[in-house]
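HUMAN: You are asked to prepare a plain-text protein record giving the amino acid sequence and the backbone structure tokens, both parts labelled.

ASSISTANT:
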Amino acid sequence: MTQSCPLVGSYGAKDRMLPGAAARLEATLTDGNVPHDEEYPDVGHSFMNDWGTPAPLRVVERVTGFHYSEPESEDAWRRILASFAIHLS
């Protein structure tokens, strides 16, 4: 891991599909001194996906933990693009 490239991983801490994945990845990357992002504590899986779900079905998204969250999504995109600007320029 010590020779791994920097990583931008946008994980929701409330992700029911990959429980604990962000924490395990965080520990591994930190141990390997790999530059990386942090997880988002208040969102779940697919928080960056704005599917344009009809209003009546948004309840299903929230219950299953698959809903879009604009503040976290915008921050994640900002971090992704900033990382690209730093590491790919």
